[in-house]
Amino acid sequence: MGRDFHLFVDGQWIETGQWDEVKDKWSGEVVGRLPVADEATVERALEAGHNATNTMAELPAHQRASILEAIADGLQQREEEIATMIALEAGKSWKYALGEASRARETFIFAAGIARTLHGETVPMDASSAGEGRFGFWYREPVGLVAAITPFNFPLNLVAHKVAPAIAAGCPLVLKPAGTTPLTALLLAEIVKNAGLPKGGLNVIHGSGRTIGAKLVTDPRPRKITFTGSREVGTWIKQHSDLKRVTLELGNNSAVVVDKDTDLELALERCLMGAFANSGQVCISVQRIYLHEEIAATFTERFVTATKTLRVDHPLVKESDIGPLISPADVDRTHDWVQEAVAGGATLLAGGQKLSDRAYAPTVLTNTTPAMKVSCDEVFAPVVVLETVPSFEDGLRLADDTDFGLQAGVFTSNLQRAFRAIRRIHAGGVMVNDVPTFRVDHMPYGGMRASGIGREGVRFAVDEMTEIKMVMIRE
Ligand code: NAD
């Protein structure tokens, strides 16, 4: 049995008397226990965050930057321990868990840079005759208390994408990590505490989204909700958050279009990673691949062969490519969707079986229709659809025929076709000669349409956690 953790409220580690167990998603063994926040604890966290508003806002930029750098150092020192926790509680294969830990460190370093350079502009007031004799400037003020709600699939880096910009902006934060993966966030809280963040600057609570999450959304104290998770919960938050600022980072059914004259080796290697990394549980996992008919047979044969070599194993086995899904219910749901596609006429080229009640075989389908769930819904599992199209433009049309709009990828060596793709695909990001799964942590990242509202990527998240204040001085 793993260690006991505590919630982090007002700079203190607290218990509530009620405990929850967090399990290794492959073996079902207990990784650790943590308290469930009761009503009084949620109230304490909100009050502590609210009371820290001025302290955080008045923290000088150099101090915010130093704290962020100290957190980055702490993450580096504890990288292996943190990667192990990610591998166990999220079921993420070691190579990806380690990648997540090092990316989070970088996210804090980017935030330190933003903290030091955040600034406004002067306004040439006398450009208007009414502005003569006046001096004007605007700058950014922290919005106040931020409520952050995060999903299971990146238990560190998606938390980092909320904690780091909040500190850079000078906002206190109440964080509710996903119920299945809260322990990594508590390891981060230990590092944040040691880095010297003022008490109340970060508060981490644990419990059900429906009660605790909903309380954070509806309480008047948070001025900003930053949410990463499913479309359904995001929609609920938008409807219940009154006039608060809201950032919603939601799902996708990401598409890739592969042109005839392109580097097929590169496309194959990147699509394989994009489809199956983290068992397909990434908001920008490759789910639909549209192949120009001239290369479709070769690509399909090689992709299927490579899929069959992937190792499904415990995430801590260093050679593991694919780990478990987050829950047995998700294994069942995935299998239902695949069976439904096959019953509707789709052809199974690889996988299509439950390997246990926790793991699903990497699965490749073809001859699907756009209306099948494996194509039009977010599958969030190691399942990918390959379809042949007569032209690159047909591929673009199908890629864009979706409610979602987070990121898409195209592989082509033709510049005109690349620009056509950039213009025709309605998504927050279009990756040319790479998969939609590509992300570095300082680029603007977020969705159009049902994929969300607003952008993360440290500088952009800071913009959303600050408000512009205009100052006019009459000379
Ligand atoms: P989820 O929506 O089920 O849960 C996310 C968080 O919301 C959890 O902390 C949960 O406890 C909380 N929650 C649930 N109901 C709530 C309510 N009524 N009010 C407030 N909070 C509530 O998502 P998940 O299953 O953890 O994660 C998978 C989803 O996240 C996928 O759709 C994926 O695409 C999306 N995602 C998006 C991004 C992105 O950056 N766009 C990144 C990762 C994951």
Structure in a nutshell:
The chain is of the alpha/beta class. The chain is 40% helix and 20% strand. Strands 15-16-17-14-13-18-19 form a seven-stranded mixed sheet, sandwiched between helices. A six-stranded mixed sheet has the order 10-9-8-11-12-20, sandwiched between helices. Strands 1-5-4 form a three-stranded mixed sheet, with helices on one face.
Give structural notes.
The chain is of the alpha/beta class and 475 residues long. The protein folds into 2 domains: 3-251 and 450-474, 3-Layer(aba) Sandwich (Aldehyde Dehydrogenase, Chain A, domain 1); 255-441, Aldehyde Dehydrogenase, Chain A, domain 2. The chain is built from 16 helices and 21 strands. The protein has helices at 39-51, 53-58, 61-77, 79-90, 94-117, 157-169, 183-194, 209-218, 231-240, 264-276, 293-308, 328-343, 373-376, 392-400, 415-424, 458-464; strands spanning 3-4, 7-9, 12-14, 19-23, 30-35, 121-123, 134-142, 146-149, 173-176, 202-204, 224-228, 245-249, 255-258, 288-292, 347-350, 363-366, 383-389, 407-411, 429-432, 452-453, 466-474. The protein has a 7-stranded mixed sheet with strand order 15-16-17-14-13-18-19, with helices on both faces. The chain has a 6-stranded mixed sheet with strand order 10-9-8-11-12-20, sandwiched between helices. A 3-stranded mixed sheet has the order 1-5-4, covered by helices on one side. Strand 13 (255-258), helix 10 and strand 14 form a beta-alpha-beta unit. The protein is globular. The model has no long low-confidence stretch (mean pLDDT 98). It binds nicotinamide-adenine-dinucleotide. Residues 149-154, 158, 176, 178-179, 209-210, 213-214, 217, 228-230, 233, 236-237, 249-251, 283, 378, 380, 406, 447, 452 line the site of nicotinamide-adenine-dinucleotide (NAD).
